[in-house]
From TrEMBL:
Organism of provenance: Pleodorina starrii
Ranges for region Disordered: 1-36
Protein's UniProt name: Bifunctional protein FolD 2
Keywords linked to the UniProt accession: Hydrolase, Multifunctional enzyme, NADP, One-carbon metabolism, Oxidoreductase
PANTHER family, A to Z: BIFUNCTIONAL PROTEIN FOLD 2, C-1-TETRAHYDROFOLATE SYNTHASE, CYTOPLASMIC-RELATED
Amino acid sequence: MAPENSTASSAAAAPAAPTPATSLAPATATPAPATPFMNGNVIDGKAVAAKIREETAAKVAELKAKYNRVPGLAVVIVGQRKDSQTYVRMKRKACEEVGIASFGADLPDTATQEEVLSVVRGFNANPDVHGILVQLPLPKHIDEQAVLGAISVEKDVDGFHPLNIGRLAMKGREPLFAPCTPVGCMELLERCGIPIKGKRAVVVGRSNIVGMPAALLLNKRDATVTICHSATKDMESIVRQADIIIAAAGQAQLVRGSWVKPGAAIIDVGTNPVDDKTKSSGYRLVGDAHFEECKEVAGAITPVPGGVGPMTIAILLKNTLESGERFISGKLQSSAAPSKRGQKGALARLLPEKEHLGPLSALAAVSLVAGAALQRIVGGVRQ
């Protein structure tokens, strides 16, 4: 995923690029928009996330006052990984703070795949649960795709269901949910008054979790989008053309100050530990962009930590609220609920008539599942 030797090879290809140390960079940088969410040219992700949580809490209170019900989020965790346990505690605490009901299933790492699937199916059928999240990674003996695919698309608040990603990729259509971290990146840009329409955006990284969805979200907002990855040639010169940079390669301090066009906005998704003997932990966290260098050139930049990180849970809460509103207001019913013959399914009621799933779509879905199963079998034989 991370670009290979990009810094050295690209620097040689573009000797005329400005260096971050030059005193001209700050003077030529475009001033950051006036916003309460920025300190100079540094974006305060904590402040933006706090505002979204405040808005979410207010809407949850409105739902409770009107229907005497609140949205519910179920988190499934398998195993005893300390980092996963920490993330789950943070999510449950965040739910409590905004008034969202929290449901959970803590399974041992010896749990079978069928046991995990049974828990997911139970939450699919639970009318008080409006969002389901399975904490990754799962133990190696469990097929993550099978478990994630079992989550009802109407409760896929993580936004990774193929139907949600497919609608995100299509012009004129919107997903029920989009992945939380990329949506958080868009919220940071928009709430800080950074224009996207008509701008040139470069996404460094093409992961299914951040890079690809971020590129799709930027495209929906009418940016001209380029994706850089490990096979990209002369990445530095490509990044230098960007008005907006989404750094999501998972490589510490990959994007240097000399890569950045003065005034560009940098949203740094990376969280990488680097050795630091001055810290009690022995390390510190840095992003995929070299903050000190890029800050001197950029018009806006997110720090690490305190930038994109707080946004992920804030958007998860927002997605859960939106799902809860659909169910509680009666726009949507649980897909597991019994239906009369000929009655449209839960998802169909949210889609335009021309997009309802017909017999050919069902056949294609069955073929896709069969093909995936065959691929796993063949892959297992080859190994």
